Model the fold of this input.
Amino acid sequence: MNTATRFIAVGALLALGVWAIFIVNEDVSVAPPVGKRWGTPPQVKGDKPLLLKSSKQCAECHPAIYNEWKSSHHEFAWLNPEPRRKELSNNFRNKDCIPCHAPRPLLEVGFGERPLERETRREDGVNCFTCHRSGQVVIAANDLGPGAANAPCNPVTWKAIAEVKLCSPCHDQHKVEQDWQRSRYAVKGSAEYKDCNDCHMPVTGGPGTVGGARRTHRGHGFKGGHDEAILRSAGIVRAIRLDNALTLAAAVEKLTGRDWRPAKELNLERGVLIEVKNTGTGHNLPSDERHRAVDLYVRFKPSIGKATEEVRLTRFRNPYRDEYENRNPFKDKPDIVLTNQMSWAESEIPVSQVRLLPDFNPNRKVYYPESTQLHAGESRLLWFEVPDWGRGTLELRLFYKLQPFLSNEDAVQIAETRVAF
Ligand code: HEC
Ligand code: HEC
Ligand code: HEC
Ligand code: HEC
Ligand code: HEC
Done:
Protein backbone atom coordinates (compact mmCIF):
# COMPACT_ATOMS: atom_id res chain seq x y z
CA MET A 1 0.00 0.00 0.00
CA ASN A 2 1.55 3.30 -0.92
CA THR A 3 1.05 6.34 1.26
CA ALA A 4 -1.73 7.79 -0.83
CA THR A 5 -3.79 4.57 -0.79
CA ARG A 6 -3.20 4.21 2.93
CA PHE A 7 -4.38 7.76 3.39
CA ILE A 8 -7.55 7.06 1.46
CA ALA A 9 -8.17 3.81 3.32
CA VAL A 10 -7.73 5.46 6.72
CA GLY A 11 -9.95 8.31 5.56
CA ALA A 12 -12.63 5.87 4.44
CA LEU A 13 -12.45 3.96 7.73
CA LEU A 14 -12.70 7.18 9.67
CA ALA A 15 -15.67 8.30 7.62
CA LEU A 16 -17.30 4.92 8.16
CA GLY A 17 -16.67 5.21 11.88
CA VAL A 18 -18.27 8.63 12.07
CA TRP A 19 -21.16 7.37 10.00
CA ALA A 20 -21.56 4.36 12.28
CA ILE A 21 -21.65 6.62 15.35
CA PHE A 22 -24.40 8.64 13.76
CA ILE A 23 -26.37 5.56 12.89
CA VAL A 24 -25.97 4.19 16.40
CA ASN A 25 -26.90 7.53 17.88
CA GLU A 26 -29.75 8.26 15.66
CA ASP A 27 -31.36 5.09 14.51
CA VAL A 28 -30.60 2.02 16.55
CA SER A 29 -30.03 2.58 20.22
CA VAL A 30 -32.21 5.54 20.96
CA ALA A 31 -32.24 5.75 24.73
CA PRO A 32 -35.62 5.22 26.36
CA PRO A 33 -37.19 8.51 27.34
CA VAL A 34 -36.41 10.19 30.58
CA GLY A 35 -40.13 10.68 30.94
CA LYS A 36 -40.00 13.16 33.81
CA ARG A 37 -43.37 14.79 34.36
CA TRP A 38 -44.93 13.05 31.41
CA GLY A 39 -44.39 9.48 32.42
CA THR A 40 -42.68 6.81 30.38
CA PRO A 41 -44.38 5.39 27.32
CA PRO A 42 -44.67 1.64 27.01
CA GLN A 43 -41.78 -0.27 25.43
CA VAL A 44 -43.58 -3.50 24.56
CA LYS A 45 -43.00 -5.57 21.43
CA GLY A 46 -40.59 -7.92 23.14
CA ASP A 47 -37.17 -6.82 22.06
CA LYS A 48 -38.02 -6.40 18.41
CA PRO A 49 -35.80 -3.51 17.30
CA LEU A 50 -37.17 -0.69 15.21
CA LEU A 51 -35.35 -1.22 11.92
CA LEU A 52 -36.88 1.68 10.02
CA LYS A 53 -34.43 4.53 9.59
CA SER A 54 -35.99 7.28 7.55
CA SER A 55 -39.31 9.02 7.16
CA LYS A 56 -39.35 8.01 3.53
CA GLN A 57 -39.83 4.38 4.55
CA CYS A 58 -43.14 5.27 6.20
CA ALA A 59 -44.58 6.32 2.81
CA GLU A 60 -45.19 2.73 1.73
CA CYS A 61 -47.85 2.06 4.38
CA HIS A 62 -48.84 5.60 5.43
CA PRO A 63 -48.87 7.36 2.03
CA ALA A 64 -51.54 9.97 2.75
CA ILE A 65 -49.82 11.11 5.94
CA TYR A 66 -46.39 11.00 4.34
CA ASN A 67 -47.55 13.21 1.45
CA GLU A 68 -49.20 15.72 3.77
CA TRP A 69 -46.07 15.93 5.90
CA LYS A 70 -43.89 16.17 2.77
CA SER A 71 -45.68 19.38 1.76
CA SER A 72 -45.62 20.83 5.29
CA HIS A 73 -43.26 23.33 6.87
CA HIS A 74 -42.21 20.61 9.29
CA GLU A 75 -40.57 18.74 6.45
CA PHE A 76 -39.22 22.08 5.15
CA ALA A 77 -37.71 23.20 8.46
CA TRP A 78 -34.11 22.39 7.47
CA LEU A 79 -34.12 23.28 3.76
CA ASN A 80 -36.23 26.43 4.11
CA PRO A 81 -34.05 29.38 2.97
CA GLU A 82 -35.71 31.75 5.47
CA PRO A 83 -34.02 30.54 8.69
CA ARG A 84 -30.80 30.11 6.71
CA ARG A 85 -30.58 33.79 5.82
CA LYS A 86 -27.20 35.29 6.62
CA GLU A 87 -28.49 37.70 9.24
CA LEU A 88 -30.53 34.95 10.91
CA SER A 89 -28.67 31.64 11.29
CA ASN A 90 -26.05 32.20 8.57
CA ASN A 91 -26.86 28.89 6.92
CA PHE A 92 -27.39 27.19 10.30
CA ARG A 93 -23.87 28.05 11.38
CA ASN A 94 -25.67 29.27 14.45
CA LYS A 95 -26.03 25.88 16.13
CA ASP A 96 -28.70 27.15 18.52
CA CYS A 97 -31.20 26.94 15.70
CA ILE A 98 -30.72 23.26 14.93
CA PRO A 99 -32.51 21.50 17.84
CA CYS A 100 -35.93 22.64 16.59
CA HIS A 101 -35.25 22.76 12.84
CA ALA A 102 -33.63 19.27 12.73
CA PRO A 103 -34.56 17.59 16.02
CA ARG A 104 -33.94 14.14 17.43
CA PRO A 105 -36.96 12.27 18.82
CA LEU A 106 -38.66 14.39 21.45
CA LEU A 107 -39.09 11.42 23.75
CA GLU A 108 -35.36 11.11 24.24
CA VAL A 109 -35.72 14.03 26.60
CA GLY A 110 -39.43 13.70 27.41
CA PHE A 111 -42.38 15.71 26.17
CA GLY A 112 -42.34 19.32 27.21
CA GLU A 113 -38.53 19.47 27.16
CA ARG A 114 -36.42 21.17 24.54
CA PRO A 115 -35.32 18.67 21.86
CA LEU A 116 -31.73 17.82 20.98
CA GLU A 117 -30.02 18.44 17.67
CA ARG A 118 -29.98 15.63 15.07
CA GLU A 119 -26.89 14.69 13.06
CA THR A 120 -28.42 12.55 10.31
CA ARG A 121 -31.00 13.23 7.60
CA ARG A 122 -31.32 16.83 8.60
CA GLU A 123 -33.03 17.51 5.28
CA ASP A 124 -36.13 15.81 6.74
CA GLY A 125 -36.59 18.70 9.19
CA VAL A 126 -39.15 17.88 11.88
CA ASN A 127 -39.58 14.24 10.86
CA CYS A 128 -41.84 11.31 11.75
CA PHE A 129 -39.45 10.09 14.48
CA THR A 130 -39.40 13.52 16.13
CA CYS A 131 -42.98 13.12 17.29
CA HIS A 132 -43.51 9.35 17.19
CA ARG A 133 -40.37 7.52 18.18
CA SER A 134 -39.80 6.21 21.67
CA GLY A 135 -36.92 3.77 21.93
CA GLN A 136 -37.81 0.80 19.72
CA VAL A 137 -41.49 1.71 19.16
CA VAL A 138 -43.61 4.41 17.58
CA ILE A 139 -46.38 5.84 19.72
CA ALA A 140 -49.91 6.62 18.60
CA ALA A 141 -53.06 8.02 20.16
CA ASN A 142 -55.40 5.37 18.77
CA ASP A 143 -56.27 1.85 19.84
CA LEU A 144 -54.62 -0.37 17.25
CA GLY A 145 -56.03 -3.04 15.00
CA PRO A 146 -54.82 -6.61 14.41
CA GLY A 147 -52.41 -5.46 11.66
CA ALA A 148 -50.32 -3.63 14.23
CA ALA A 149 -48.69 -6.77 15.65
CA ASN A 150 -46.66 -7.38 12.49
CA ALA A 151 -46.05 -3.77 11.48
CA PRO A 152 -42.34 -2.93 11.13
CA CYS A 153 -42.90 0.37 12.93
CA ASN A 154 -43.75 -1.39 16.24
CA PRO A 155 -46.74 0.84 17.04
CA VAL A 156 -48.00 1.12 20.61
CA THR A 157 -50.77 3.23 22.05
CA TRP A 158 -49.74 6.07 24.36
CA LYS A 159 -52.36 8.80 24.45
CA ALA A 160 -49.98 11.47 25.72
CA ILE A 161 -48.86 12.00 22.12
CA ALA A 162 -52.11 13.87 21.47
CA GLU A 163 -51.40 16.42 24.21
CA VAL A 164 -50.47 20.04 23.66
CA LYS A 165 -47.13 19.38 25.39
CA LEU A 166 -45.99 17.69 22.20
CA CYS A 167 -46.03 21.02 20.37
CA SER A 168 -44.94 23.44 23.08
CA PRO A 169 -41.20 22.72 23.39
CA CYS A 170 -40.80 24.22 19.93
CA HIS A 171 -43.88 26.42 19.64
CA ASP A 172 -44.04 28.16 22.98
CA GLN A 173 -40.98 30.34 22.42
CA HIS A 174 -43.35 33.23 21.85
CA LYS A 175 -46.06 31.96 24.19
CA VAL A 176 -48.43 30.36 21.69
CA GLU A 177 -49.34 27.65 24.15
CA GLN A 178 -49.63 30.09 27.05
CA ASP A 179 -51.97 32.31 25.05
CA TRP A 180 -54.03 29.31 24.03
CA GLN A 181 -54.23 28.17 27.70
CA ARG A 182 -55.93 31.47 28.56
CA SER A 183 -58.52 31.30 25.77
CA ARG A 184 -61.97 29.75 25.78
CA TYR A 185 -60.62 26.98 23.52
CA ALA A 186 -58.61 25.53 26.42
CA VAL A 187 -61.57 24.96 28.78
CA LYS A 188 -61.64 21.16 29.08
CA GLY A 189 -65.10 19.68 28.74
CA SER A 190 -66.61 22.81 27.19
CA ALA A 191 -68.35 22.61 23.81
CA GLU A 192 -65.84 25.13 22.47
CA TYR A 193 -62.75 23.13 23.48
CA LYS A 194 -60.22 22.96 20.66
CA ASP A 195 -56.55 22.14 21.01
CA CYS A 196 -53.64 22.65 18.60
CA ASN A 197 -54.43 19.43 16.76
CA ASP A 198 -58.14 20.20 16.31
CA CYS A 199 -57.14 23.20 14.20
CA HIS A 200 -53.73 22.15 12.83
CA MET A 201 -54.27 18.38 12.40
CA PRO A 202 -57.91 18.29 11.32
CA VAL A 203 -59.54 14.90 10.78
CA THR A 204 -59.14 14.19 7.06
CA GLY A 205 -60.80 11.69 4.70
CA GLY A 206 -59.02 8.45 3.78
CA PRO A 207 -57.18 5.93 6.00
CA GLY A 208 -53.86 6.85 7.61
CA THR A 209 -52.57 3.31 7.17
CA VAL A 210 -52.97 1.24 3.99
CA GLY A 211 -55.57 -1.38 4.88
CA GLY A 212 -56.04 0.23 8.31
CA ALA A 213 -59.34 -0.05 10.15
CA ARG A 214 -60.33 3.65 10.25
CA ARG A 215 -61.59 5.58 7.19
CA THR A 216 -60.13 8.90 8.36
CA HIS A 217 -56.89 10.15 9.81
CA ARG A 218 -55.42 13.23 11.45
CA GLY A 219 -54.02 15.50 8.71
CA HIS A 220 -50.26 16.07 8.89
CA GLY A 221 -50.10 19.23 6.73
CA PHE A 222 -49.67 21.52 9.80
CA LYS A 223 -51.13 24.51 8.01
CA GLY A 224 -50.28 27.96 9.33
CA GLY A 225 -48.97 31.26 8.02
CA HIS A 226 -48.27 29.82 4.56
CA ASP A 227 -51.78 28.57 3.89
CA GLU A 228 -54.50 30.82 2.54
CA ALA A 229 -57.42 28.67 3.73
CA ILE A 230 -56.43 28.60 7.40
CA LEU A 231 -55.51 32.28 7.27
CA ARG A 232 -58.99 33.08 5.97
CA SER A 233 -60.43 31.35 9.04
CA ALA A 234 -58.32 33.45 11.41
CA GLY A 235 -60.47 36.56 11.81
CA ILE A 236 -63.12 38.85 10.37
CA VAL A 237 -63.68 42.50 9.44
CA ARG A 238 -67.11 44.05 9.49
CA ALA A 239 -68.31 47.62 9.35
CA ILE A 240 -71.40 49.85 9.33
CA ARG A 241 -72.09 53.45 8.39
CA LEU A 242 -72.49 55.96 11.14
CA ASP A 243 -74.74 58.98 10.68
CA ASN A 244 -76.72 61.47 12.74
CA ALA A 245 -79.43 58.93 13.48
CA LEU A 246 -77.08 56.38 15.08
CA THR A 247 -75.09 56.98 18.26
CA LEU A 248 -71.75 55.25 18.64
CA ALA A 249 -72.98 53.04 21.50
CA ALA A 250 -76.01 51.92 19.47
CA ALA A 251 -73.78 51.24 16.46
CA VAL A 252 -71.39 49.14 18.55
CA GLU A 253 -74.29 47.09 19.85
CA LYS A 254 -75.69 46.67 16.33
CA LEU A 255 -72.35 45.65 14.82
CA THR A 256 -70.84 43.51 17.57
CA GLY A 257 -73.72 42.61 19.88
CA ARG A 258 -71.57 43.93 22.75
CA ASP A 259 -72.42 46.60 25.26
CA TRP A 260 -69.77 49.31 25.13
CA ARG A 261 -70.32 53.00 25.79
CA PRO A 262 -67.97 55.87 25.06
CA ALA A 263 -67.35 58.39 27.86
CA LYS A 264 -68.91 61.03 25.61
CA GLU A 265 -71.62 60.10 23.10
CA LEU A 266 -70.84 61.07 19.56
CA ASN A 267 -72.69 61.31 16.27
CA LEU A 268 -70.78 61.31 13.02
CA GLU A 269 -72.43 62.64 9.88
CA ARG A 270 -70.75 60.45 7.36
CA GLY A 271 -68.83 58.05 9.53
CA VAL A 272 -67.89 54.43 9.63
CA LEU A 273 -67.48 51.98 12.50
CA ILE A 274 -65.22 48.99 11.87
CA GLU A 275 -64.60 45.82 13.86
CA VAL A 276 -61.61 43.51 13.38
CA LYS A 277 -62.05 40.36 15.44
CA ASN A 278 -59.97 37.25 16.10
CA THR A 279 -62.72 34.68 15.59
CA GLY A 280 -60.85 31.56 14.50
CA THR A 281 -57.32 31.66 15.89
CA GLY A 282 -56.84 29.69 19.09
CA HIS A 283 -54.11 32.08 20.24
CA ASN A 284 -52.90 35.56 19.29
CA LEU A 285 -53.33 36.74 15.72
CA PRO A 286 -50.82 36.86 14.14
CA SER A 287 -48.77 34.44 16.16
CA ASP A 288 -45.67 32.46 16.97
CA GLU A 289 -43.19 33.58 14.33
CA ARG A 290 -42.11 37.13 15.34
CA HIS A 291 -41.96 38.43 11.74
CA ARG A 292 -45.69 38.24 11.02
CA ALA A 293 -48.01 41.25 10.69
CA VAL A 294 -51.73 41.72 10.03
CA ASP A 295 -52.69 45.08 8.52
CA LEU A 296 -56.06 46.80 8.06
CA TYR A 297 -56.21 49.02 4.96
CA VAL A 298 -58.90 51.38 3.65
CA ARG A 299 -59.68 53.03 0.32
CA PHE A 300 -62.69 54.82 -1.15
CA LYS A 301 -64.03 54.02 -4.58
CA PRO A 302 -66.36 56.75 -5.87
CA SER A 303 -69.20 55.64 -8.20
CA ILE A 304 -67.48 57.59 -10.96
CA GLY A 305 -63.72 58.01 -11.22
CA LYS A 306 -60.68 56.54 -9.60
CA ALA A 307 -60.31 55.01 -6.14
CA THR A 308 -58.31 56.93 -3.53
CA GLU A 309 -54.93 55.68 -2.44
CA GLU A 310 -55.14 52.76 -0.02
CA VAL A 311 -53.86 53.63 3.47
CA ARG A 312 -53.14 51.62 6.57
CA LEU A 313 -55.55 52.09 9.47
CA THR A 314 -53.86 49.84 11.97
CA ARG A 315 -51.40 46.99 12.38
CA PHE A 316 -51.55 43.90 14.59
CA ARG A 317 -48.11 42.67 15.46
CA ASN A 318 -45.57 41.73 18.13
CA PRO A 319 -42.86 44.26 17.25
CA TYR A 320 -39.11 43.79 17.27
CA ARG A 321 -37.31 45.62 20.06
CA ASP A 322 -36.26 48.53 17.83
CA GLU A 323 -39.63 49.00 16.13
CA TYR A 324 -40.86 52.08 17.95
CA GLU A 325 -43.72 52.91 15.59
CA ASN A 326 -45.47 49.57 16.08
CA ARG A 327 -45.51 49.51 19.86
CA ASN A 328 -48.80 49.02 21.62
CA PRO A 329 -50.22 52.49 22.35
CA PHE A 330 -52.81 51.04 24.79
CA LYS A 331 -50.09 49.65 27.09
CA ASP A 332 -51.60 48.76 30.47
CA LYS A 333 -54.80 50.74 29.86
CA PRO A 334 -56.70 48.34 27.67
CA ASP A 335 -60.02 50.22 27.79
CA ILE A 336 -59.01 53.74 26.73
CA VAL A 337 -60.03 55.36 23.43
CA LEU A 338 -57.07 56.47 21.35
CA THR A 339 -57.35 59.06 18.60
CA ASN A 340 -54.67 59.61 15.96
CA GLN A 341 -54.49 61.70 12.81
CA MET A 342 -54.46 59.76 9.55
CA SER A 343 -53.28 61.31 6.28
CA TRP A 344 -55.51 60.05 3.53
CA ALA A 345 -55.88 61.45 0.02
CA GLU A 346 -54.83 64.94 1.13
CA SER A 347 -57.13 64.92 4.14
CA GLU A 348 -56.12 64.77 7.81
CA ILE A 349 -58.68 62.58 9.54
CA PRO A 350 -58.91 61.78 13.24
CA VAL A 351 -59.29 58.00 13.65
CA SER A 352 -60.35 56.64 17.03
CA GLN A 353 -59.88 53.12 18.27
CA VAL A 354 -60.65 51.02 21.29
CA ARG A 355 -60.06 47.41 22.28
CA LEU A 356 -63.03 45.16 23.06
CA LEU A 357 -61.43 42.56 25.30
CA PRO A 358 -62.61 38.96 24.88
CA ASP A 359 -65.81 38.00 26.72
CA PHE A 360 -63.95 35.03 28.11
CA ASN A 361 -61.14 35.80 30.56
CA PRO A 362 -60.83 39.49 29.53
CA ASN A 363 -58.08 40.24 32.05
CA ARG A 364 -55.84 37.39 30.99
CA LYS A 365 -52.10 37.59 31.48
CA VAL A 366 -50.34 39.42 28.65
CA TYR A 367 -46.82 38.24 27.85
CA TYR A 368 -45.81 41.01 25.48
CA PRO A 369 -47.18 44.38 26.65
CA GLU A 370 -45.68 46.03 23.57
CA SER A 371 -47.64 43.81 21.23
CA THR A 372 -50.78 44.75 19.32
CA GLN A 373 -51.67 41.15 18.41
CA LEU A 374 -55.37 40.32 18.79
CA HIS A 375 -55.93 37.78 21.57
CA ALA A 376 -58.31 34.90 20.87
CA GLY A 377 -61.82 36.40 20.93
CA GLU A 378 -60.63 40.03 21.09
CA SER A 379 -61.91 42.83 18.82
CA ARG A 380 -60.54 46.19 17.82
CA LEU A 381 -63.08 48.90 17.00
CA LEU A 382 -62.18 51.90 14.84
CA TRP A 383 -64.31 54.85 13.77
CA PHE A 384 -63.84 58.03 11.77
CA GLU A 385 -65.54 60.54 9.49
CA VAL A 386 -65.19 59.76 5.78
CA PRO A 387 -64.50 62.89 3.64
CA ASP A 388 -67.35 63.91 1.37
CA TRP A 389 -66.23 62.25 -1.85
CA GLY A 390 -69.85 61.76 -2.99
CA ARG A 391 -71.43 58.37 -3.60
CA GLY A 392 -69.23 55.33 -3.62
CA THR A 393 -67.93 52.37 -1.63
CA LEU A 394 -65.55 52.26 1.29
CA GLU A 395 -63.39 49.16 0.98
CA LEU A 396 -61.70 47.61 4.00
CA ARG A 397 -59.13 44.86 3.53
CA LEU A 398 -57.22 42.82 6.10
CA PHE A 399 -53.82 41.53 4.95
CA TYR A 400 -51.57 38.85 6.44
CA LYS A 401 -47.84 39.43 5.91
CA LEU A 402 -45.11 36.87 6.48
CA GLN A 403 -42.90 39.78 7.46
CA PRO A 404 -43.68 43.44 8.17
CA PHE A 405 -41.90 44.92 5.14
CA LEU A 406 -44.03 43.16 2.52
CA SER A 407 -46.32 45.15 0.25
CA ASN A 408 -50.02 44.35 0.01
CA GLU A 409 -49.35 42.70 -3.36
CA ASP A 410 -47.08 40.18 -1.63
CA ALA A 411 -49.51 39.64 1.24
CA VAL A 412 -52.56 37.39 1.58
CA GLN A 413 -55.90 39.14 1.86
CA ILE A 414 -57.57 37.26 4.70
CA ALA A 415 -60.81 39.25 5.16
CA GLU A 416 -62.60 42.20 3.59
CA THR A 417 -65.82 44.19 3.73
CA ARG A 418 -67.46 47.14 1.97
CA VAL A 419 -69.70 49.97 3.10
CA ALA A 420 -71.88 51.94 0.67
CA PHE A 421 -71.95 55.74 0.86
C1 HEC B 1 -44.95 -2.15 5.97
C2 HEC B 1 -45.95 -1.23 6.41
C3 HEC B 1 -45.59 -0.15 7.42
C4 HEC B 1 -44.51 0.70 7.41
C5 HEC B 1 -43.33 0.74 6.46
C6 HEC B 1 -44.72 1.63 8.50
N1 HEC B 1 -45.89 1.34 9.15
FE1 HEC B 1 -46.69 2.33 10.70
N2 HEC B 1 -48.24 1.00 10.77
C7 HEC B 1 -48.41 -0.05 9.94
C8 HEC B 1 -49.58 -0.82 10.34
C9 HEC B 1 -50.13 -2.06 9.66
C10 HEC B 1 -50.10 -0.15 11.49
C11 HEC B 1 -51.32 -0.57 12.33
C12 HEC B 1 -52.55 0.17 11.83
C13 HEC B 1 -53.79 -0.18 12.62
O1 HEC B 1 -53.69 -0.84 13.65
O2 HEC B 1 -54.86 0.27 12.20
C14 HEC B 1 -49.23 0.99 11.71
C15 HEC B 1 -49.44 1.93 12.71
C16 HEC B 1 -48.69 3.06 12.86
C17 HEC B 1 -49.01 4.12 13.79
C18 HEC B 1 -50.25 4.17 14.67
C19 HEC B 1 -51.43 4.48 13.76
C20 HEC B 1 -52.76 4.60 14.42
O3 HEC B 1 -53.72 4.12 13.82
O4 HEC B 1 -52.85 5.21 15.49
C21 HEC B 1 -48.04 5.08 13.67
C22 HEC B 1 -47.94 6.38 14.43
C23 HEC B 1 -47.11 4.61 12.67
N3 HEC B 1 -47.53 3.40 12.20
C24 HEC B 1 -45.98 5.30 12.29
C25 HEC B 1 -45.09 4.84 11.33
C26 HEC B 1 -43.88 5.52 10.99
C27 HEC B 1 -43.40 6.81 11.63
C28 HEC B 1 -43.28 4.79 10.02
C29 HEC B 1 -41.97 5.08 9.32
C30 HEC B 1 -40.82 5.20 10.21
C31 HEC B 1 -44.12 3.64 9.75
N4 HEC B 1 -45.21 3.70 10.58
C32 HEC B 1 -43.86 2.68 8.82
C33 HEC B 1 -47.63 -0.37 8.86
C34 HEC B 1 -46.44 0.25 8.53
C1 HEC C 1 -37.26 26.32 20.36
C2 HEC C 1 -37.32 25.89 18.98
C3 HEC C 1 -36.72 26.77 17.91
C4 HEC C 1 -35.44 27.25 17.84
C5 HEC C 1 -34.30 27.03 18.83
C6 HEC C 1 -35.36 28.00 16.60
N1 HEC C 1 -36.56 27.96 15.92
FE1 HEC C 1 -37.00 28.87 14.15
N2 HEC C 1 -38.88 28.22 14.27
C7 HEC C 1 -39.38 27.44 15.29
C8 HEC C 1 -40.79 27.23 15.09
C9 HEC C 1 -41.69 26.43 15.99
C10 HEC C 1 -41.12 27.93 13.90
C11 HEC C 1 -42.47 28.03 13.25
C12 HEC C 1 -43.15 29.26 13.76
C13 HEC C 1 -44.21 29.75 12.86
O1 HEC C 1 -44.28 29.37 11.68
O2 HEC C 1 -44.96 30.60 13.38
C14 HEC C 1 -39.89 28.53 13.41
C15 HEC C 1 -39.82 29.30 12.26
C16 HEC C 1 -38.72 30.00 11.88
C17 HEC C 1 -38.67 30.92 10.76
C18 HEC C 1 -39.81 31.27 9.81
C19 HEC C 1 -39.79 30.40 8.59
C20 HEC C 1 -40.74 30.91 7.50
O3 HEC C 1 -40.71 30.30 6.39
O4 HEC C 1 -41.46 31.87 7.69
C21 HEC C 1 -37.41 31.43 10.72
C22 HEC C 1 -36.88 32.46 9.74
C23 HEC C 1 -36.69 30.83 11.83
N3 HEC C 1 -37.51 29.96 12.51
C24 HEC C 1 -35.37 31.09 12.11
C25 HEC C 1 -34.69 30.57 13.21
C26 HEC C 1 -33.33 30.93 13.53
C27 HEC C 1 -32.47 31.88 12.75
C28 HEC C 1 -33.02 30.26 14.69
C29 HEC C 1 -31.72 30.32 15.48
C30 HEC C 1 -31.27 31.62 15.85
C31 HEC C 1 -34.18 29.49 15.08
N4 HEC C 1 -35.17 29.70 14.15
C32 HEC C 1 -34.23 28.68 16.19
C33 HEC C 1 -38.69 26.91 16.37
C34 HEC C 1 -37.41 27.22 16.70
C1 HEC D 1 -39.27 19.74 17.24
C2 HEC D 1 -39.89 21.00 17.12
C3 HEC D 1 -41.35 21.05 16.71
C4 HEC D 1 -42.43 20.37 17.24
C5 HEC D 1 -42.42 19.35 18.35
C6 HEC D 1 -43.60 20.85 16.54
N1 HEC D 1 -43.23 21.78 15.61
FE1 HEC D 1 -44.47 22.80 14.38
N2 HEC D 1 -42.87 23.71 13.51
C7 HEC D 1 -41.55 23.55 13.89
C8 HEC D 1 -40.71 24.34 13.03
C9 HEC D 1 -39.19 24.46 13.15
C10 HEC D 1 -41.57 24.98 12.09
C11 HEC D 1 -41.19 25.96 10.99
C12 HEC D 1 -40.32 25.41 9.97
C13 HEC D 1 -40.00 26.42 8.91
O1 HEC D 1 -40.91 27.03 8.33
O2 HEC D 1 -38.79 26.61 8.64
C14 HEC D 1 -42.92 24.56 12.44
C15 HEC D 1 -44.05 25.00 11.79
C16 HEC D 1 -45.35 24.75 12.21
C17 HEC D 1 -46.52 25.39 11.69
C18 HEC D 1 -46.54 26.52 10.69
C19 HEC D 1 -46.49 26.16 9.27
C20 HEC D 1 -46.32 27.39 8.40
O3 HEC D 1 -46.97 27.43 7.37
O4 HEC D 1 -45.56 28.30 8.73
C21 HEC D 1 -47.61 24.88 12.36
C22 HEC D 1 -49.05 25.25 12.17
C23 HEC D 1 -47.09 23.93 13.30
N3 HEC D 1 -45.72 23.86 13.19
C24 HEC D 1 -47.87 23.22 14.20
C25 HEC D 1 -47.39 22.28 15.10
C26 HEC D 1 -48.23 21.50 15.99
C27 HEC D 1 -49.74 21.59 16.06
C28 HEC D 1 -47.40 20.71 16.72
C29 HEC D 1 -47.77 19.68 17.77
C30 HEC D 1 -48.59 18.58 17.28
C31 HEC D 1 -46.03 20.99 16.29
N4 HEC D 1 -46.07 21.94 15.31
C32 HEC D 1 -44.88 20.41 16.82
C33 HEC D 1 -41.10 22.80 14.93
C34 HEC D 1 -41.87 21.94 15.68
C1 HEC E 1 -45.20 17.43 14.73
C2 HEC E 1 -45.45 16.09 15.20
C3 HEC E 1 -45.75 15.00 14.20
C4 HEC E 1 -45.04 14.67 13.08
C5 HEC E 1 -43.82 15.37 12.49
C6 HEC E 1 -45.66 13.48 12.54
N1 HEC E 1 -46.73 13.11 13.30
FE1 HEC E 1 -47.94 11.51 13.01
N2 HEC E 1 -49.16 12.14 14.51
C7 HEC E 1 -48.88 13.18 15.39
C8 HEC E 1 -49.92 13.27 16.37
C9 HEC E 1 -50.00 14.29 17.49
C10 HEC E 1 -50.85 12.22 16.07
C11 HEC E 1 -52.09 11.82 16.86
C12 HEC E 1 -53.26 12.69 16.65
C13 HEC E 1 -54.47 12.16 17.38
O1 HEC E 1 -54.89 11.04 17.09
O2 HEC E 1 -55.00 12.88 18.22
C14 HEC E 1 -50.33 11.55 14.90
C15 HEC E 1 -50.96 10.48 14.28
C16 HEC E 1 -50.34 9.67 13.33
C17 HEC E 1 -50.91 8.46 12.78
C18 HEC E 1 -52.29 7.95 13.10
C19 HEC E 1 -53.24 8.80 12.28
C20 HEC E 1 -54.71 8.51 12.41
O3 HEC E 1 -55.43 9.44 12.82
O4 HEC E 1 -55.11 7.41 12.07
C21 HEC E 1 -50.01 7.95 11.88
C22 HEC E 1 -50.15 6.69 11.06
C23 HEC E 1 -48.89 8.85 11.87
N3 HEC E 1 -49.13 9.89 12.74
C24 HEC E 1 -47.77 8.70 11.08
C25 HEC E 1 -46.83 9.69 10.85
C26 HEC E 1 -45.82 9.63 9.82
C27 HEC E 1 -45.63 8.50 8.88
C28 HEC E 1 -45.12 10.80 9.88
C29 HEC E 1 -44.03 11.30 8.97
C30 HEC E 1 -44.33 11.26 7.55
C31 HEC E 1 -45.68 11.57 10.99
N4 HEC E 1 -46.71 10.87 11.53
C32 HEC E 1 -45.22 12.83 11.41
C33 HEC E 1 -47.78 14.03 15.33
C34 HEC E 1 -46.83 14.02 14.33
C1 HEC F 1 -59.26 27.48 17.08
C2 HEC F 1 -58.22 27.07 16.16
C3 HEC F 1 -56.78 27.09 16.61
C4 HEC F 1 -56.21 26.52 17.73
C5 HEC F 1 -56.91 25.84 18.89
C6 HEC F 1 -54.79 26.69 17.59
N1 HEC F 1 -54.50 27.37 16.43
FE1 HEC F 1 -52.66 27.82 15.72
N2 HEC F 1 -53.51 28.90 14.20
C7 HEC F 1 -54.85 29.00 13.94
C8 HEC F 1 -55.06 29.91 12.84
C9 HEC F 1 -56.41 30.31 12.24
C10 HEC F 1 -53.79 30.34 12.43
C11 HEC F 1 -53.46 31.33 11.30
C12 HEC F 1 -53.38 32.76 11.81
C13 HEC F 1 -52.12 33.07 12.55
O1 HEC F 1 -51.04 32.76 12.06
O2 HEC F 1 -52.22 33.62 13.67
C14 HEC F 1 -52.83 29.67 13.29
C15 HEC F 1 -51.46 29.79 13.19
C16 HEC F 1 -50.55 28.99 13.88
C17 HEC F 1 -49.15 28.89 13.59
C18 HEC F 1 -48.46 29.51 12.42
C19 HEC F 1 -48.00 30.88 12.66
C20 HEC F 1 -47.07 31.34 11.57
O3 HEC F 1 -46.41 32.31 11.85
O4 HEC F 1 -46.98 30.73 10.50
C21 HEC F 1 -48.60 28.06 14.52
C22 HEC F 1 -47.16 27.65 14.62
C23 HEC F 1 -49.67 27.63 15.39
N3 HEC F 1 -50.84 28.22 14.98
C24 HEC F 1 -49.49 26.77 16.45
C25 HEC F 1 -50.51 26.42 17.33
C26 HEC F 1 -50.29 25.69 18.56
C27 HEC F 1 -48.96 25.18 19.05
C28 HEC F 1 -51.52 25.55 19.16
C29 HEC F 1 -51.86 24.91 20.49
C30 HEC F 1 -51.18 25.46 21.66
C31 HEC F 1 -52.50 26.19 18.28
N4 HEC F 1 -51.83 26.71 17.20
C32 HEC F 1 -53.87 26.24 18.52
C33 HEC F 1 -55.85 28.35 14.62
C34 HEC F 1 -55.68 27.64 15.81
